Structures are given as structure tokens and as C-alpha cells.
Amino acid sequence: MQAVRRLHDAAVVLLLCGRVRSARPDASEVLSQHLRQRGLPHWTSYCVKYSAVRNDQFGLSNFNWLVDGANYHILRTGCFPFVKYHCSRAAPQDLALHNAAFTALKVLNAGIPTLLYGIGSWFFVSVTETVHTSHGPVTIYFLNKEDEGAMY
């Protein structure tokens, strides 16, 4: 898995023509800070540019994420030029089988649908938000405006 991660990181740098900030926050820090800034919402869905974060959650597609005592089920996928997150507050569950299934699907289809999703997202982004991290501000992107406090 480590070799695949190094290959992926090299491909991202190549595709970004070397335009990757040297001091970038972890994607996990952006995730946690976004959830905190939103007051631990019931759900949220956003994209963050690969070039803005260090992809420390590589290989994770569906997993639990604990922030300040609130557990979230995270659906995550790389959809170049973004990493897409869908977060739903829920009780912790064993998501290992789901994670393996989603990862296998992405490998089997060679990532083509996720690439198309990323390109499409680029055209439909309508809202941005700034997340404050230990490495400075990071812009995240939304395909639509989220209603604060909405359950769904």
C-alpha cells in the first residue's frame, strides 16, 4: 500500500505541475476543523483541492471519524483535482467491509468515474468556505449551499 501511495503522490505532483504548497495541513485536520467550524453538523459534503492538503487519508474510502465526542461516517474519494468528503453524524460502526468494497470498485473502474466527477465538480462549485488550520487558511468547495442545522 505504501508503494501505491508514493506512486499516487508523485502522479498528483506531476498533474499539478509541481504547484503544491510545501507547508500544507493534513486533509484530516481540514476535515476536523471544518466540522468544528460548522458546530458539528448532522451532515456536510465538500471538496478540497489536492494541492491544498497533504493526503494523509489515502486508501480510506469509508470510515469513522471522531471529532470532539461526535462520530461521523465519512465517505471519501479522490476526484481530481479534488478530494471529496461526505460526512454524516452517526454511531460508530465497523466500516471495514464497506471501505474495502468502495476501494475495490475504484480500482476496478480505474478511477475514471471519480475523475469525471472531479472535472464536473470544477464546473458546478457554487459556494466556498475558508477553514482555518495550523498551516493557515484552506478553501473548501461546495456544489450547493448547505442549510445550517439541516438533518439531511
Automatic annotation (TrEMBL):
Keyword Signal in annotation: yes
Residue spans crossing the bilayer: none
Cross-referenced InterPro entries: DUF4528 (IPR029245)
Sorted UniProt keywords: Signal
Signal peptide range in chain numbering: 1-22
Pfam families for this protein: DUF4528
Highest taxon in the source lineage: Eukaryota
Protein name per its UniProtKB record: Chromosome 15 open reading frame 61
Native source species: Coturnix japonica (Japanese quail)
